[in-house]
Amino acid sequence: MYLSRFLSIHALWVTVSSVMQPYPLVWGHYDVCKTQIYTEEGKVWDYMACQPESTDMTKYLKVKLDPPDITCGDPPESFCAMGNPYMCNNECDASTPELAHPPELMFDFEGRHPSTFWQSATWKEYPKPLQVNITLSWSKTIELTDNIVITFESGRPDQMILEKSLDYGRTWQPYQYYATDCLDAFHMDPKSVKDLSQHTVLEIICTEEYSTGYTTNSKIIHFEIKDRFAFFAGPRLRNMASLYGQLDTTKKLRDFFTVTDLRIRLLRPAVGEIFVDELHLARYFYAISDIKVRGRCKCNLHATVCVYDNSKLTCECEHNTTGPDCGKCKKNYQGRPWSPGSYLPIPKGTANTCIPSISSIGTNVCDNELLHCQNGGTCHNNVRCLCPAAYTGILCEKLRCEEAGSCGSDSSQGAPPQGSLALLLLLLLLTALLGTASPLLF
After folding, report:
1. 362-398 is a CATH 3.90.220 domain
2. 116-133 residue pLDDT tens
3. CA 405, CA 415: separation in Å to the nearest integer?
């Protein structure tokens, strides 16, 4: 009997909680821009910082190769297998789908065997350098949230630079240098991310960790985003509040993880030894089977949704903001200067909502954003609130009986708010369940 009563109480609590709880049960991901709460004045909007979910950003990019005719297969040519550089009976032919290796194969699903991959022409013009620029463009500012991972089907290059742009490819800055010999290639001492710290996390380094020529099972190159996050959030990224706090207060750190474009500069293919074998130049080429870039649209903490329409990413802005990155206030909402949202205070942050301009307050009576009709009223053409029968006022904020002076204890017009009603229901049912029995033993 007691178990049955306990289950009844639990079911009741779940039901009432769903009525009374205006917020999600878990916070800290900034996945909600606003929610309705109940106050003495009725239902109002509570605003908070928000951002889109992290996702695979390769679905939205455009790729450009320079030189544009660097892809193998036109004209057809033979190349040597990676595992056996003297077996040179493999063929690349752009006119035959089974033998073609176009750029889009760097971003397709890699569940098939053998792997699909883009491939460059071979180094047949040696000693002229075999160099390729692969530019990834989003036409949108994005924030990186995970490691950039490049998987080579050939040997990893002896020399490579990963670069970033914050202005849609007009200017470029190095992200990281890669080489078998950093001092010889770039006049830099070799380092790894593990050599960095909170104070040097923005340092541009050259690493020899990923440039090992034809070594078996060594196909992957990383740009370590998460290792850099870990300097602030801990090795397992459990203290994200600390990271968000740093991103909020340090613009250079925030900009470091922000890009509009990435550029992979392949400067020297995997040679595997000191000298180039001029008798077997078909051994030397670049081939990439996969590129992974995870991130989110930058919406300045003013949106949770980023839509892809007509080959373009755009934030669906909240908080009375507008623009591709929610980077300005909407018309008639310039009552104070625009500001990005803030991750602080944890866990909901600060929305920094744009507020109505003084000149627009008289004409915009309601807007379902900042000027929300209360007590169940609905906004009609932003001109007036249509109030329920029991309420009046510009925003339905007054009981009609108050104006008539007829609000008494028996009046049905002053109904309690939904939260109070739910609490009263809970108390009544608890009394019914518990009042007729001896104390429960759990």
Report:
1. no
2. 999 999 999 999 999 999
3. 16
